[in-house]
């Protein structure tokens, strides 16, 4: 087996392991307050680590595959194909964009994590404004929403921001700790 084939096979195996780990970590989640989906979990961490090790070329497809598996095997919630495409496939693939920062040694892991999490939030936000606007309740957490005007925008911001803020903070803390404690784990593997 030549070196290129060996490296490619190693990347495929590593990607499969990180996707499996992300899927398992998705079972340890908090979702009590988000009745229409969304949760606080560690499932993004393996995709972020893979992206920082191998780059976006491996991270984005890994996120996409995780989204497919999560939707199919964990009872994904969606209102039609567009909801599934946005909230599972595109949202998890967005996490893999962290890999665009994988060669930035000092700030790359944290900046990449912030960008990946922000892009995932943006995808969920767009889904909330365009698809889930029909489900905008009139009262959430003591806030009143109108289904007209800015109601869906504010609702999507509050709803998706509620769990994505926690996920982002957790992801940044974990990636920062991994960078300090096990820097080689996040080092680019080219």
Category by helix and strand content: mainly alpha
Number of helices: 7
Helix content: 55-70%
SSE run: HHHHHEEHH
Distance between the termini: 18 Å
Largest sheet: 2 strands, antiparallel
Give the beta-strand count. 2
Tell me the radius of gyration. 17 Å
What would you note in describing this structure?
- The chain has helices spanning 3-25, 44-54, 56-73, 81-95, 108-130, 151-181, 183-186, and strands spanning 139-140, 143-144.
- With 190 residues, the protein is an all-alpha fold.
- A two-stranded antiparallel ribbon has the order 1-2.
- It starts with a helix and ends with a helix.
- The model has no long low-confidence stretch (mean pLDDT 83).
List keywords for this structure.
mainly alpha; globular; 2% strand; 7 helices; two-stranded antiparallel ribbon; 190 residues
Give the helices and strands, then pairings.
Layout: H1 3-25, H2 44-54, H3 56-73, H4 81-95, H5 108-130, E1 139-140, E2 143-144, H6 151-181, H7 183-186
Antiparallel strand pairs: 1-2
Helix pairs in contact: 1-2, 1-3, 2-3, 2-6, 3-4, 4-5, 5-6
Give a quick summary of the entry.
This protein has a two-stranded antiparallel ribbon. The model has no long low-confidence stretch (mean pLDDT 83). The chain has 190 residues and is an all-alpha fold.
């Amino acid at each position: 087996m030549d070196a290129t084939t060996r490296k490619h096979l190693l990347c495929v195996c590593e990607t499969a392991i990180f996707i499996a780990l992300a899927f398992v970590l998705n079972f340890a989640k908090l979702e009590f307050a988000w009745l229409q989906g969304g949760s606080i979990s560690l499932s993004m961490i393996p995709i972020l680590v893979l992206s920082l090790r191998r780059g976006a070329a491996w991270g984005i497809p890994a996120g996409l595959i995780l989204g497919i598996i999560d939707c199919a095997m964990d009872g994904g919630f969606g209102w039609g194909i567009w909801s599934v495409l946005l909230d599972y496939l595109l949202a998890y693939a967005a996490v893999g964009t962290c890999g665009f920062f994988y060669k930035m040694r000092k700030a790359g892991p944290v900046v990449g994590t912030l960008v990946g999490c922000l892009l995932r939030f943006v995808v969920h936000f767009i889904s909330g404004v365009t698809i889930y606007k029909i489900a905008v309740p009139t009262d959430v957490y003591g806030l009143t929403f109108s289904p007209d005007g800015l109601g869906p925008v504010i609702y999507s911001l509050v709803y998706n921001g509620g769990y994505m803020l926690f996920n982002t903070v957790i992801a940044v803390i974990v990636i920062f700790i991994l960078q300090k404690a096990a820097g080689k784990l996040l080092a680019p593997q080219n």
